[in-house]
Amino acid sequence: MKMLVIPKKSINAGNLILVNAQYPYCSGNAESSLVPAHSKSSVLLERRAAVLLSKLMSSIEGWEQISAVSGWRSRAEQQDIYNQSLRDNGAAFTEQFVANPDHSEHQTGLAIDLGLRKPEIDFIRPDFPYSGICQTFREKAVAYGFIERYPNGKEAITGIAHEPWHFRYVGAPHAAIMTELGLTLEEYHAFLKQYPNGEKRFLYRTGNQNIEVAYVKTAAGADAEFEIEDDIPYSVSGNNADGFVLTKWRNCNDKG
Questions:
Q1: Locate the D-alanyl-D-alanine carboxypeptidase-like core domain: which residues (predicted)?
Q2: Given 31, 163, 186, 199, the catalytic residue
């Protein structure tokens, strides 16, 4: 066993951070890891998200029909978009479809808006139907770590209207777990709090692996400290609220 110490500031970083009206984006370090969503695009994404998106699009030849509409945004850009929408569309529309600055996932570099290629594309509400190449993308997205972030019927939970075009990278196995359980990111974090590290673990089996997921609660203002087995692949993501998500990968014949 070894002791891991996760700095308290890391609570605001990782694939699983929750950014919404209640939890603002506090890290501000997204720019250091941004790359183009694809070779012919000025849209930027966090590096790992961009790599997985590229693999997904290659598998379906998606870039021929799908356009990357919006990825990472600076705070200033998000403010401009919000202000412009207020002027053009009014408060009611803007509150449904445009997040306030510092409360937008786009500032993390982990979210992307996609739309069908057309001569004119609506920047705020691009067309991304549940048919054709768009549905093919949607069905394969989970395997590459992406979820449709704002599904229909979950508006009261996410605080955002249904957005078929908006996808969020959360990574594996979390995209699959959330999809199979029908959970939004808000609901997933609430769900994981049933599995405090060291007491319980959520077990997800895929292929020849058992994947364990647990919630690590932190004391206010303190680093997170916990033991983990030697030679076990693992990842840790902050939740941007009150702790971390610990994920461990084991072969099915491993004991633990």
A1: 46-171
A2: 163
